[in-house]
Amino acid sequence: MEKEIEFNLIERSANGNTEAFRVLVEANQGFAISLASRFVRDVTDAEDIVQEAFIRVWKNLNRYDFNFRFKTWLGKIVTNLCLDAGKSAKLRQTRPLDDAAPHQANENATNELEQEELRSIILHLARQLTPRQQAVFVLRDLEQLEPDEVCKALDMSNGNMKSNLYYARVHIKAGLEKFYETIPQNKR
Amino acid sequence: MKCSEYEQSIYLWEEISPEEKAALTRHMEACSTCAELFQQIQLMKQRVIEASANKTTAPHAAQLTSRIMQAVHKQQSNSPANLTAQIFSPFQLIRYAFATLSFILVISFGMEYARTGAPQKPQPATLEEAVILSSTIIRSSAADRKKRKSIFSQCKTPFTDQLAYLECIKQQLQ
Asked: A-chain residues within 8 Å CB-CB of B6?
């Protein structure tokens, strides 16, 4: 969505226009669900977080900082909600590691299934990181946000972001090496 | 510089400055270990990007949108501005007016009650009291009639004119 259109929708929404807000929701809920599901395992939990995030957005539209992209702002709210939710015991219950282990994969698995498997492993490893490292890794490496957007979304200095990202990547690499003998090639 | 000092730059290749990139490139030209680590990290990043490209989508996106919008509408109806509009709607103002009027009436009644006390029921008179009261009234009426008659008779003579007659009655009454 173009910036001008987005800002116009935000302004109209801030004035109480729910139809304009609906357009913003429809345009950004895919990103929000994708982001939330990087942190929480269950899609229903992710949907609840996304709903709560949009309500917060609606309540705080008057305080929207037009220096931010809407996506960055929404990402910040979703990430914070996910990190808060992650503190609850319910979401801390992790699946046994074997569930995501590649050795259970069918020998005839398609490339798509392998991708899904790799994705599960990466998310599993990401959940073992500290909340800050996980948030930086998810936003930068999985959601492909620019470094300055990650800093804005997480209220973090560039140095702090880089430090968290470095430790996150070290952990992910070590974890992947543990599952695979080396970093997975196109076809193991 | 030692290899360990370049390690962080290898992991953060996309995030480091052009100067840092140039220094690392020069180092890797001479250091196969760091060059190999660099290749591994780049491959890992590529695999992560590919794996994460398959994004989770809401199974019922339209339902989620409508859930969100319902919650938003609920928020909107509970907002202070909306509550103020509801409180000061014409219908509500009429209700407030009637309520205030009722309140004033109740208070007035209470004050009057406190001032005069409870209304007393008329007590039925006994037969004896009724007879005495009636005879008193009849007697006083008869006495009045007699008195009035004597006044009129004293003043009225065949020779008095109207003005003199009235003046006489006035004096008698005084």
From this structure: none
Retrieve residue A89's tokens.
């015991």
- Conformational region of residue A11, where left means phi above 0, alpha means psi within -120 to 50, and beta covers everything else: alpha
CA distance A6 to A24: 8
- List the domains of chain A with CATH numbers: 1-93 (1.10.1740.10), 96-188 (1.10.10.10)
Give A54-113 pLDDT, tens digit per residue.
Answer: 999 999 988 888 888 888 899 999 999 988 887 664 444 444 333 333 444 444 445 666
Query: How far does the CA of residue A88 sit from the closest CA of chain B (Å)?
Result: 22
CB-neighbour burial class of residue B43 (10 A; exposed 0-12, middle 13-18, buried 19+):
middle
pLDDT of residue A78: 92
| Chosen from A15, A62, A115, A146 to mutate, greatest number of chain B CBs within 10 A | A115
For chain A, the distance separating the N- and C-terminal CA atoms, rounded to the nearest angstrom, is 39
pLDDT confidence of residue B36: 92
One-letter amino acid for residue A40 of the chain: V
Tell me: the pLDDT tens digits for B36-81?
999 999 988 888 888 777 666 667 788 889 999 998 888 877 766 6
CA distance linking residue B43 with residue B47, whole number of Å: 6
Question: Which are the contacts of A182, defined by CB distance < 8 A and separation ≥ 6?
Answer: B40
User: Which residues of chain A does B72 touch, with a Cβ-Cβ cutoff of 8 Å?
Assistant: 18, 21, 54-55, 58
pLDDT at residue A112, as a whole number: 66
Is the CB of A53 inside 8 Å of chain B's CB atoms?
A: no
Mean pLDDT score across all residues of chain A: 81
Respond yes or no on whether ipTM tops 0.90: no
Residue A142's CB: how many other CB atoms inside 10 A? 21
Closest partner residue to B64 (CB to CB) among A37, A50, A170 is A50
